[in-house]
Design goal:
This is Xylulokinase. With 516 residues, this protein is of the alpha+beta class. It is built from 19 helices and 23 strands. Helix content is 41%, strand content 21%. The strands form seven sheets. A seven-stranded mixed β-sheet has the order 17-18-16-15-21-22-23.
Length: 516
């Protein structure tokens, strides 16, 4: 039997395929970027067939670059973007483009759920605050606005079960971690809540089957072997939501250690032995990829995506320098950011470029800069975005602590962990020791660990993490900067509240929709 496993991370902006040895050695890594589309204000969609095609292409490249015989790769695990939903017919064909988790069109359905179920009862059942993030709201929106499509849909699936099926799994199986994000799963029983589906008018037969993570579901058939490069018979293992996978891949598998992932989205995650609920119903309680365990997390809709937006729209000069010097454009931007003092000379960014998730759950919130003067530079603006995203994470961490969660160490991964500038900003702002990982792609590593567990190569999650995870650098907080950031942080929170309370965001969004 071979001694290698593969993790595939199907994200919002690209797919990454990595092949690992059982000691955590990276044999190869391949990445392909792809876009979302934005047909109307607040709408975010994606071509689901494109993500599958790119998964095949990237898998072939990763296998080729590894130099391994594909037969040596024992199993595949998936880490997938959560809440991006696709209605499919009985033959598995997509009936429309996938509706992204970033999409905020279903704000009216959010209000309907509050009226029909009640926020408190909904949270008690699902562990989720009511918001446009949840696929249940998009299913309700489709039923109301495209009833013929709803009726034609055989299933409403996320990327996990959709891609597993295309890889060779018969049927559609949703792991508990992704299932808990639908807004229809009983968080205590890990089952679809049939009373909830009935009250919301959703046919439960249109939902996939629920299974734990780390379960063998099938094998790669010859037809898929040809498309992907994986050997026929390679085991297909249920993976998990990208951030729950990152919890395993980052080592946040015990109390006192939390993980902050600054990917396209941002997620701050803490492990729980029991489904402890937030009394204010602001912090989700969802299923972990560790079977039968839970996690508390705070979601940011646009974390590194906000920084990428700056790169795309404003970093033309930095991109030219990067090409000339053979550097990453982000490294060039970071060099300039490092010269800007904390607080960005009085410039604050409220980074809700895709609405606000935890802890406000405000679909109308939009990105906002406060404090602009003629003296501000693009470097100030870039750092303000980086700090704004970190303020958002800090608010989530403070909420976790207020709910009784112990925080001793913060593990960093994703785009926000790739450069020392953002890592130090995080340590200073949180006032906690922050540690980066040798393998920054914790989501992909977590998927590979689940593949190894499913294949029986390790007996426990703890054993697998101990063997495959290695820490890298430690960042200790500068407490003088921490005190300064606390003062800016209060202004940041007050600014959002003032704009929200005055309905500024909601009025802007609805006015923009009127003009379409």
């Amino acid at each position: 039997m071979g001694k290698y496993v593969c993790g595939i991370d199907i994200g919002t902006t690209g797919v990454k395929v990595m092949i690992f040895g059982l000691d955590g050695t990276v044999m190869s890594s391949a990445y392909t970027e792809y876009p979302c589309t934005f047909p109307r204000s607040g709408w975010v969609e994606q071509d689901g067939e494109m993500t599958w095609t790119k998964t095949c292409e990237t898998s072939r490249r990763a296998i080729e670059e590894s130099g391994l015989d594909p037969k040596e790769i024992v199993a595949i695990g998936l880490s997938t973007q959560r809440c991006t939903i696709t209605p499919i017919d009985k033959d598995g064909n997509a009936l429309c483009t996938s509706i992204s988790w970033q999409d905020a069109r279903s704000f009216e359905e959010v209000e309907e759920i509050k009226q029909i179920i009640g926020e408190e009862e909904f949270y008690k059942i699902t562990g989720m605050p009511v918001g446009t993030l949840l696929p249940v709201t998009e299913i309700m929106w489709l039923k109301k606005n495209q009833p013929e499509l709803y009726e034609r849909a055989d299933l409403f699936v996320l990327d996990q079960e959709r891609i597993l099926h295309k890889l060779g799994v018969e049927g559609y199986y949703e792991d508990w971690s992704n299932g808990s994000m639908y807004g229809l799963m009983d968080i205590n029983k890990f089952e679809w809540d049939l009373e909830l589906t009935k009250k919301l008018g959703i046919n439960p037969k249109k939902l996939p089957k629920l299974v734990p993570s780390g379960k063998i579901l099938g094998e790669v058939p010859p037809s898929v072997s040809y498309l992907t490069g994986f050997a026929e018979g390679t085991l297909l293992v249920s993976g998990g939501g990208d951030q729950q996978c990152a919890g395993i891949g980052a080592g946040a598998i015990k109390s006192g250690v939390i993980e902050v992932a600054m990917g396209t989205s941002g997620v701050t995650l803490g492990y729980m032995d029991k489904p402890n609920m937030d009394p204010t119903m602001e912090m989700p309680c969802s299923a972990h990829t560790i079977a039968g365990k839970w996690e508390s997390e705070g979601l940011q809709n646009a974390a590194a995506a906000s920084y990428k937006w700056f790169r795309n729209e404003f970093a033309y000069q930095e991109n030219l320098v990067a090409q000339e010097k053979g550097m990453s454009v982000y490294d060039v931007i970071n060099e300039k950011i490092e010269q800007v003092d904390p607080g960005c000379n009085g410039l604050i960014c409220i980074p809700y470029l895709a609405g606000s998730a935890a802890p406000h759950w405000d679909p109308f919130a939009r990105g906002t800069f406060i404090g602009f003067t003629l003296g501000h530079t693009r470097e100030d603006m870039a750092r303000a975005i980086m700090e704004g995203v970190t303020y958002e994470a800090k608010e989530i961490i403070e909420k976790m602590i207020a709910n009784g969660m112990e925080v001793n160490e913060i593990l960093l991964n994703g785009g926000g962990a790739k450069g020392p500038v953002w890592c130090q900003i995080q340590a200073d702002m949180y006032g906690k020791t922050c540690t980066t990982l040798d393998i920054e792609e914790a989501t992909t590593l977590g998927a590979a660990i689940l593949a190894a567990l499913g294949a029986g190569l390790f007996e426990t999650v703890e054993e697998a993490v101990d063997r495959m995870l290695r820490k890298k650098e430690v960042y200790n907080p500068n407490m003088k900067n921490h005190e300064l950031y606390n003062r800016y942080f209060q202004i940041y929170k007050d600014a959002y509240k003032a704009l929200s309370d005055a309905n500024i965001y909601e009025r802007l969004v609805k006015l923009a929709l009127e003009n379409k």
